[in-house]
Design brief:
This protein is α+β, with helices and mostly antiparallel strands and 255 residues long. The chain has 2 domains: 150 residues, Aminopeptidase, CATH 3.40.630; 85 residues, no CATH class. The protein has 7 helices and 14 strands. The longest helix is centred in the middle third of the chain and has 14 residues.
Length: 255
Amino acid sequence: MKRRIAPFPSAGPLPAWWAPLFEASGSDSVFLSPVWMRNWIDVYGAGFSGSWVHWEHGGRVVAGCLLVERLVRVKGVPFRSQFLNATGKAESPTPLAEFNDVLHLPGHADAVAADFVRLLQERAWGRLLLSGHEPDGVAVVPQDLWRDDLATMATAEKIELAKELERLTLAADARVRVDEADYADVQAFAPKCFEAVDPRDRGDDPDIHAQVWDRLHSTWVGVKPGMWIVRGIRGEFYPIDDGVLADTYEEVSNA
C-alpha cells in the first residue's frame, strides 16, 4: 500500500478521488460528504494549511483524509494544531462534526490505521485533535495506542511527558524583548509590524506602550514593556509575557 500526499489549497475543487471514495466506503456521514467538505473549505479553508492524504493499493485509492493545521492559542501560547478533515478550529465558530474518520474501503482499516499512526508520528505538531471520530474507526487507533502507552507509566512520568509535549522550542533569533527606552531592535525584528502607541491612544490600559500586528488574526495586539515579541513558524509576530516565555519555551540552537 502506498501513501500519497498533496498540498491542501484553501481554494479549488476537492481531489478527484474524494467523491468516489466516499461512495465506495459506504460512509453515511454527512460530515465526510463531498458537499459538506467543499462548503467547509469554502467558508473556513483560508485559515488553514495542510495536506490531502490518500492511500493506494493495486492501482486503486483505498483510503484518504484531509489533515489541516493552524496555530491555535491556548492561554496565549500558540500551538501548531493538527485536525482531521473538516473539523479545524477556525477564527469564527465552526460546526460540531460527528462520525469523523479516515475514509477507507472495507478490508483496509487495519493497514490504513497503522500507516496513519506513522504519518502522525512523522509530522510536527503540538496538539492533535481528531474531533468527532468514531469509536471503531481508523482515527481512534492513534489515541488508543498512545493512551495504552500512557497507562503503563507512573504518574510522575506522565507529568514529565505532559510538560515535554506542551513545551515548545524557540530559536534564539526568533524573539526579542521589548525595551521601552529603545524600540529600534523590535522594529528591526518585526519591520512594519511593530509601533509605539501614543499615550493619548492607550485607552483603559495605560501600560500598553506599543502594539504588534498579528497577521494570522489580522489585528493589532497591545504590548507592555518587558514582554517579548516572538516570530512564529509562518513569520507572524505575537507578544508573550516574560514568565510564560520562560515556562513554555525552550531555547534551541539556530543551527
